[in-house]
Amino acid sequence: MQEINAFQFFNKENAVKAYSDMYKELNFDIRYPANVKREEIFIELLKKYKPKKIIDAGCGAGMPLIDIKKKGFEIVGYDKAKNMVLEAKENLIKNGFSPDLVFYDDFEDPKEVKNNSVDCILGMGTFYYSKNVNKTLLNQKKILKKDGRLIFSLRNKLFDIITLNNYTKEFLDEIFEIKKLKKDWKDKYEYLTKNYTDRKKIKLEKNIDEEGIYNHVPHNPLTIAEEMSKLGLSVEGIYFYHFHALPPLFETFDKNYFREISWNIENPLDWRGFFLASAFVIDCKKVSETKL
Ligand SMILES: C[S@@+](CC[C@H](N)C(=O)[O-])C[C@H]1O[C@@H](n2cnc3c(N)ncnc32)[C@H](O)[C@@H]1O
Questions:
Q1: In the chain, what percentage of residues exceed pLDDT 70?
Q2: Residue 81 contacts by C-beta under 8 Å, 6 or more apart in sequence?
Q3: Tens digits of per-residue pLDDT, 195-215?
Q4: What is the C-alpha separation between 142 and 115, in angstroms, rounded?
Q5: How far apart are alpha carbons 9 and 48 in whole angstroms?
Q6: Which of 119, 135, 179, 207 could in theory staple to 51 by disulfide, Cβ–Cβ 3.0 to 4.6 A?
Q7: DSSP letter, residue 132
Q8: Predicted TM-score (pTM) of this structure
Q9: Ligand 1 probe mutation, 3, 5, 7, 12, most atoms within 8 A of CB
Q10: Ligand 1 proximity of 113 Cβ (cutoff 6 Å)
Q11: Which candidate, 129, 153, 136, places its Cα nearest to that of 282?
């Protein structure tokens, strides 16, 4: 499948509207409000650190930015999808704020924000769309002041274990190093794992891989601190969200019930999040100017 860049996907009218609405309509019939949970995690961290100057990188339609602004924080945001920027400006006006709080920029190579000038950068569902995530993170670090915070969400690789589908199969193939096995063991293993359902055969809402949006492979929360330390970022906290009470297939049997029982177990600090949550937020502190 040919992949498109995320900002092109998010520039489409339906994506722009979805990102304006999803923070208003908490209706399990329409969608699972994972991003609302994500926003709560970010707001709790902001309340804890009280950073003076905040940037929302990839701010989308600006709804989280507006909520953060309403809580009294000094925040500006930018996006590479022009229609998202326009929508965010309209949403700001509707909420009585200046449209100039959002502007066009690219988090892979930001041009509009001065180096060493901000206390906190937020990435809500954003940086893993970069062609080179580590380079993007290093570019955010340049903009941060010393001891500044880079708080952003990532997709959870360990979630593949509990989906019990082709993602699980790929995960197991990788950790068991199946390619290296002798032929008859490979066959036995294939037999054992043959019942993992293939997502493509089930009517689920498309995920970002199936939408064909370019994105980085999910990250492993068990090794993320080590990975970030190589970039001069110290991981001070990991917070899980978008819990799945059961494998995603169950969502096709009774969408509302599935979403309700999943919502009830959302707890960013529950250890089960390592497996049941499809995403997590990491709270990083800039500790050095290390380059890769
Ligand atoms: C999943 S949406 C999240 C929007 C918003 N942060 C939220 O949580 O509601 C991802 C956003 O990142 C933007 N984006 C993708 N690549 C970008 C880039 N290189 N620079 C800036 N924004 C980008 C997209 O246009 C989109 O608005």
A1: 96
A2: 7, 8, 10, 11, 15, 16, 60
A3: 887 776 766 677 877 788 888
A4: 5
A5: 34
A6: 119
A7: S
A8: 0.95
A9: 7
A10: no
A11: 153
